[in-house]
Amino acid sequence: MKLSSLWIRDFVDLSVDDRRLAEDLTNVGISVEGISGSGAETVFEMEIGTNRPDAMNHYGVAREAAAIYGMPLKALSGSAAEAAAQSGDADGAAGSRALSKQAGGSQSPLLAKKAKNAAPKAFPTTVDEPHLCPRFSARVIRDTRVKPSPENVVHRLGLLDQRAISNAVDATNYVLWEMGKPTHVFDMDLLEGGRIVVRKARDGETLRTLDGVERKLSSEDLVVCDARKPVGLAGVMGGYDTMITEKTRNIVIESAWWDPGIVRKMARRHGIHTDASHRFERGADFESTVVSCDLVARMILESGGGDLVGDVVDVVSRPMDQAPVVLRLSEVRRILGSGLDSGEIFRLLKRLGFTVIPEGQGGTEEDAQFRVHIPSWRLDVEREIDVIEEIARLHGYDKFENTLPAYRGAVVELPHAAMDGAFRERALALGYNEAVSLTFISHADAERFEAGSGFPAAAKAVGESVDLARLKSGPSQTDPELKSGASHSARGLKSGRSNPAHGSESGASHSALGLESGSPQLTRVLELENPLSEEASVMRTSLAPGMLDMLAWNLNRDVAEVRLFEMGSIYGLSSEGGVEPRRACLGATAAAVRAALPVGGALDVSSDEPAMAVETFRGFKGDVENILAAFGWGYASYDRKTADYFHPGRSARAVMDAIVVAQFGQIHPEVAAGRKLRQEVFLAEFDLEALYQLGPRRVRFRSLDKYPAVERDFSFVFPDDVTFVEMRKVVAELVIAELREFRPVEIFRGGSIGPGKYSALLRARLQSGERTLREDEVAQWSGKIVGAMTELGGVQRV
Asked: How far apart are CA 453 and CA 556, in angstroms?
């Protein structure tokens, strides 16, 4: 937000220049991000924390400046009085200086002068919801003139990028930026029944707000009404039908304290964000309602004339006294060190507007404590530590000695720290950068990326027949699955080829994230009570949405090769209550995966585009395998039951020891298009709870074999529906003890190979640990392998 340096200086006499003022304000937490203009045109670009609505105005910042430099703070009415003097009402300007900055029904001499001949009449006001509107103040002005505001008011609002409308409306805007209290003005002649009622809206009622939008109300809305209808959405926006126009002669000024929660909910529900709601959502000063009414009234009277009707209306349904805080000197010194004595603490807090009363003085100063009364504008100060923070920031963080807090315990590692480290180490070695996404997602993402998608409550049979990535529609484009453990990635780890597998099927299990001994089943999502937006209204049920957002962010900035990973929790409700299972996610663009493929290491040597798509999938799968290799004892098997947001032919699910530990693959083209991803992206989701059940994989030493190995290659043509799982299974059933390895070397389609078939070059490695193998033995075992492949429907190529 923008604030005027000159306007701030109206309330406190400062000798420092604007740059020094900006630096000192920033050091105490009132951040000045930039300065524009010069002289009387100087404007500060402010970044005020959401917990400091008291500083979102000129008087609040001036209060901070007065505390920093130990200068007196002028009366709140001073600046407005100067504006009145410049507009030609000298009597009013002189008298208005006496307006107290404290609330409680005090009245400026100008207002008293205007009202001295008027009979005291109370404007009828009823508050039906005192817990949501504990204070409502109002004033009535008759026979005024609505016209353009004085030039100095227009100029000051213009510095803040605020458009001048009329003297009455501008008065409310001016007071908002001067003291931070939103007010509203009604055309009194358009208020039916001559009264105001604060109540809950009735279902089906409508209100046309100042922006011209007809809004349908419900019983959850709090509204300001006349005797017949709603005329304003409490704390958010006024009504169109009672707004000030050039024809207005009689005005009702309203200033109330609204419950922050109800304002926040209404603003979100109706999709409105105004300067008023921005402040009321964070908590306004309870004692400012009468003062703000008086300031608006005086500005209208000074510029447009008129008469006050009666005294100020001030309906206080419920006091809002903040409980005092007990401050112990020993606690101050424990947190901040021993550099502050009780006298200095007293002076610092007094400069910030706190009332400090010594009590409980013991035998030593260390036993001293104070009862600290919180000023009405500081709703963020509730506990002793809050008061200590106020002392620290005003004293200056740079003035405290650098000390370490006392700690007698020992550093205790989390139970899964070693396995977290193993996962992170492998991901980094593969070239992935760790990233952190928001823990909030939208309802749409929560439904699309359902928590249990692809992770069933119990694994299917391990070793189920698995097809390679389907590259084109129809069953004729299926490759055989590759041997588990081979990798297509060599970035810092083992090089080799990957294990592609067929992707998701419709009807894939959407049940629990964990298995028999894993995470409990997530049955419901956790919704935020007061979300910042619809896009961040649910606690994430998957890391996938955040990862896709981060990949899209990079792609939109022309970063084509992106590899990221994230480790964190997802959130939900199960039959056992709230749960936060641990998950991990890899994300990579297709360009990044292709760039890391080993040159000349393609398994599918077909020259068409689908072959390249297969190799890209294998490359990403190699990354997944390299990470899984850090856990468990056996190799992973792969099936095709992934979530439906994965590509149906380029995704797989990893199963280790009958536990589903991961699902991965290319994101479905429809999902990618919906998120406007500029290229194909790959995602892998890991169930860390399940992986940690398996434990870390221990390195075992085995001495090298003394005797040479013998390799034999077999070239076969298979139907597309024959997978490598089947080949490996029938070879294993031969029980050849000397068979050390059986894997595919090359796959080819096209040319002389007919449709619906593919050519596979298979390699067997035979070795004995006791002797050199004889040629007749190798020939016998080779014959058995050829026979097994032939039984599967393979035709040997010579």
From this structure: 28
Nearest-angstrom CA–CA distance, 247 and 104: 33
Other beta carbons less than 10 A from residue 786's beta carbon: 15
Q: From residue 567, how far is each of 241, 424, 690, 700 by CA, in Å?
A: 54, 8, 14, 28
Give dist(CA 117, CA 115) in Å, integer: 6
Both tokens assigned to 304 = 């447009």
pLDDT mean over 567-593: 90
Q: Tokens in use for 168?
A: 């009455």
How far is 474 from 64, CA to CA, in rounded Å?
A: 72
The DSSP string of 414-465 is: -TTHHHHHHHHHHHHHTTPEE----SEE-HHHHHHT-TTTT--SS---TT--
- Rg over CA atoms, the chain: 37
Beta bridge partners of 795: 717
pLDDT on residue 24: 96
322: which residues sit within 8 A by CB, 6+ positions away?
A: 373, 374, 376, 379, 381, 382
Q: Which residues pair with 619 in a beta bridge?
A: none
Task: Give the span between the Cα atoms of 60 and 25, in whole angstroms.
Answer: 12
| pLDDT, tens digit, 9 for 90 and up, residues 62-87 | 999 999 999 999 988 633 333 333 33
Least confident of 77-91, 333-347, 603-617: 77-91
Q: How far apart are CA 140 and CA 191, in angstroms?
A: 12
For the beta carbon of residue 235, count every other beta carbon within 10 angstroms: 28
Q: What is the mean pLDDT of the chain?
A: 84
| Residue 770, strand partner residues | none
pTM of the model: 0.62
Q: For 722-741, what is each residue's pLDDT tens digit?
A: 888 789 889 999 999 999 99
Q: What span, in angstroms and rounded, lies between the C-alpha atoms of 325 and 602?
A: 71
Q: Is 50 exceeded by the pLDDT of residue 612?
A: yes
Beta strands in 487-629 (DSSP E): 538-539, 563-569, 572-574, 577-579, 582-589
708 touches 769 (CB < 8 A): no
Sheet of 646-656: strand order equals: 433-434, 563-569, 582-589, 681-687, 659-667, 646-656, 637-639
Question: What whole-number distance in Å separates Cα of residue 194 and Cα of residue 123?
Answer: 8
274 pLDDT more than 90:
yes
Residues 6+ apart with CB under 8 A from 595: 561
Q: Are 460 and 442 in contact (CB under 8 A)?
A: no
Question: SS in 3 state form for 593-611?
Answer: HHHCCCCCCCCECCCCHHH
